[in-house]
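Quick review question:
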């Protein structure tokens, strides 16, 4: 049979191609995906496609074009939509159903029903999403392409998860085209990607509009990530969007909705003195899917974290898979002895604990009593492939008052709903690491956030003209970090008496001191296609969903659920309790006999026969002539790291042993490993090797009044500043600890010592640059 493309199950695949258009406006994106289906078989079919979307995507449009006719889907209560879909198919009509997984909001199922032989259909799906802010102020957009099988914990009941048909990423039988248009009030500096891009094209002289396109020959072997950089990215902003003319005034879609983008700035005095206390708990995924270099990256990162923790804090390390373990029976005080013991354990850590059951270790951690006067900070490292996402988020939310939760999604296919959800519910920050991108800089940004004093007593007050009232759509702000964006959505009701401006004030207490940030905004409404309304509706729906899941009384649960369904239908935004349903009432005769079901395969990067099916090349980018892209600043240590990752991904590769051994002499990690817990270095052969000098050369150059430990520490600091500035984010806290130790030694000839170190190492680092 000439049925065209086939899956690995030897079944024909009716999905031929996906075309994605992304419209980025400042820090919000509208994504339109068009899926082309064609039935080349001799019988009518039903095509079912289970695929990933970002966990915080607000799906707001679903339609189908068959021949010359277009059918636009409606949002209906989920069970009602399913029944309509089944009834339509049994009566011979074409029907299209789109629904969100009840287990995790980042997995959707699309059913294309009763596609006759020779028929084609074009399915259009649209969603809006906020772009996350990265460590280097880039705005991150990710189009998930990879859907790894989600691990279902033993003994967990509930609704049946959608059936996922997976193939190795290199064998996906349909194509992807991808274009993005970026528009901003501020100039666009550059756009980067983990995939090959055609050069960015500016569309105006001001460089506030640009387009980028995915290069030819893209394979579905990784998620497509864009990083958009603006000049002056930290400017607070407000958008007041006009309501829908046909909607009733007073309703969410009928009234104007405001989106405020705030970047709180904390006093310099507070930021210069990071906390020297805290209980730091590191929860590391050691399931089988963390193999192939991911666990190696986690090991290197734990080493860096342990060396960067302040004296006086407490810490512990947990590993989890089908079961979990912990390094110490309870959190221990940070000292040379406990750090050495932890590092020995970290060196032997491997992906050997089976499945991904994160709920059990979290419950265990939350049962442990907190250390007095040591704020608890939880760092979670996972590739995030679990079925019970919503149960995990409920647990984190219910314990949010006792800790902050920082999460790291490792690898393509990590569940964005789990990673971002845990951080949001735990008052922390989420980061994603894909391909061969280094985890360390992102982790160190989160550690700096964790060392910032917790902001408490946060309140938001509005100053609006007479006759205008505000209804918040966002949950109350529970977390603020210096320079990190906070978004607030609110509905504006009533008649404006003529005033053109409003003001919002965010008040909070920081390190015992009252502080506030103010933002004025114009009240003139803009027509921006209801994007802000839909994001506001989605935000409110997700807040209500958590409220509903926490509700103790069934009656209260039902009331909240009804409100969510009503809001979802009114706004046209998907929810866990609704689905999009479209029926082509003009379509053919009743189908005789069962439809042939065709599961459209989705790419996976999971293990097949014990080996991972694909591994992407190093992060590449071709996007802008404005400054070198961050991935092009690879140091020798980064190249070594990449070699280690690639060769670890194939245990049969020749030379693997040599490269794994080579990883041990990654110079930056080597220097950091050699630092003592209190912050100083000693003269040891490993340090002299990294410095490229002999013991005799070091002894000869040392100023006489200076002790060996001070000399070694100054040399290490000069080496970091002189040779590793591109990785400063990774060693900054290590260096701060070293500087504090040197200053405490009260060395009288520090200028002479730094000059001698510069001469020895061939550097020109100023004493002031070192912080001495």
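Suggested answer, residue by residue:
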């Amino acid at each position: 049979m000439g049925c065209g493309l086939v899956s690995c199950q030897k079944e024909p695949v009716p999905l031929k191609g996906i075309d994605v258009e992304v419209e980025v406006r400042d820090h919000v994106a509208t994504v339109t995906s068009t899926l082309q289906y064609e039935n080349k078989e001799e019988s009518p079919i039903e095509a079912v496609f289970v695929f990933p979307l970002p966990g915080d995507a607000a799906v707001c449009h679903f339609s189908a074009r068959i021949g010359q006719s277009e059918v636009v889907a409606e949002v209906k209560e989920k069970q009602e939509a399913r029944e309509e879909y089944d009834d339509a198919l049994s009566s011979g009509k074409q029907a299209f159903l789109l629904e969100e997984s009840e287990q995790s909001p980042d997995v959707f199922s699309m059913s294309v029903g009763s596609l006759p032989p020779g028929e084609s259909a074009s399915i259009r799906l649209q969603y809006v999403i906020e772009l996350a802010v990265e460590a280097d102020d880039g705005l991150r957009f990710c189009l998930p392409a990879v859907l790894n099988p989600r691990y279902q914990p033993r003994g967990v009941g509930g609704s049946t998860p959608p059936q996922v048909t997976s193939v190795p990423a290199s064998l996906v039988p349909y194509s992807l085209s991808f274009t993005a248009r970026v528009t901003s009030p501020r100039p666009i500096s550059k756009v980067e990607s983990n995939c090959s891009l055609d050069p960015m094209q500016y569309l105006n002289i001001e460089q506030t509009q640009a387009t980028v396109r995915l290069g030819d020959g893209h394979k579905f072997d990784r998620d497509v990530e864009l990083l958009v950089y603006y000049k002056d990215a930290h400017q607070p902003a407000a958008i007041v969007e006009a309501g829908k003319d046909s909607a009733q005034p007073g309703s969410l879609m009928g009234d104007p909705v405001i989106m405020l983008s705030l970047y709180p700035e904390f006093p310099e005095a507070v930021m210069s003195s990071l906390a020297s206390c805290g209980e730091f708990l590191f929860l590391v995924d050691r399931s089988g899917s963390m193999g192939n270099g991911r666990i190696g990256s986690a090991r290197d990162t734990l080493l860096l974290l342990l060396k960067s923790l302040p004296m006086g804090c407490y810490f512990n390390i947990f590993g989890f898979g089908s079961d979990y373990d912990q390094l110490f029976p309870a959190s221990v005080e940070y000292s040379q002895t406990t750090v050495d013991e932890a590092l020995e354990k970290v060196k032997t850590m491997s992906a050997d604990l089976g499945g991904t059951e994160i709920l059990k270790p979290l419950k265990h951690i939350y049962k442990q009593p907190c250390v007095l006067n040591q704020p608890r900070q939880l760092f979670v490292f996972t590739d995030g492939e679990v079925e019970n996402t919503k149960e995990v988020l409920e647990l984190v939310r219910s314990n949010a008052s006792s800790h902050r939760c920082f999460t790291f999604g490792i690898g393509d296919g990590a569940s964005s709903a789990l990673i971002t959800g845990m951080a949001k519910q735990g008052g922390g920050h989420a980061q994603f690491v894909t391909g061969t991108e280094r985890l360390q800089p992102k982790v160190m940004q989160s550690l700096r956030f964790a060392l910032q004093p917790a902001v408490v007593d946060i309140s938001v007050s509005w100053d609006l003209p007479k006759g205008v009232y505000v209804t918040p759509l966002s949950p109350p702000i529970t977390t603020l970090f210096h320079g990190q964006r906070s978004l607030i959505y609110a509905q504006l009701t009533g008649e404006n008496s003529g005033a053109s401006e409003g003001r919002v004030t965010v008040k909070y207490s920081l390190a015992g001191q009252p502080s506030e940030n103010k933002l004025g905004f114009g009240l003139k409404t803009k027509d921006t296609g209801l994007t802000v309304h839909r994001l506001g509706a989605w935000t409110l729906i997700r807040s209500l969903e958590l409220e509903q899941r926490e509700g103790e009384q069934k009656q209260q649960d039902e009331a909240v659920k009804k409100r969510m369904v009503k809001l979802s239908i009114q706004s046209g935004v998907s929810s866990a309790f609704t689905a999009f349903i479209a029926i082509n009432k003009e379509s053919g005769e009743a189908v005789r006999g069962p439809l042939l079901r065709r599961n459209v395969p989705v790419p996976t990067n999971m293990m097949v026969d014990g080996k991972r099916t694909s591994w992407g090349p190093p992060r590449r980018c071709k996007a802008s002539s404005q400054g070198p892209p961050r991935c092009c600043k690879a140091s020798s240590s980064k190249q070594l790291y990449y070699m280690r990752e690639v060769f670890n991904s194939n245990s049969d590769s020749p030379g693997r042993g040599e490269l794994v051994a080579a990883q041990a002499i990654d110079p930056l990690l080597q220097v950091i490993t050699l630092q003592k817990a209190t912050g100083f270095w000693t003269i040891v052969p490993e340090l002299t090797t990294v410095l490229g000098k002999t013991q005799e050369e070091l002894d000869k150059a040392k100023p006489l009044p200076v002790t060996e430990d001070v000399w070694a520490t100054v040399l290490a600091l000069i080496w970091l500043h002189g040779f590793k500035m591109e990785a400063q984010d990774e060693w900054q806290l290590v260096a701060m600890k070293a500087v504090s130790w040197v200053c405490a030694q009260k060395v009288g000839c520090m200028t002479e010592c730094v000059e001698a170190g510069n001469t020895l190492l061939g550097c020109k680092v100023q004493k002031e640059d070192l912080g001495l």
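Why it works: Residues 635 and 726 are 8 Å apart (CA to CA). The chain has 19 helices and 36 strands.
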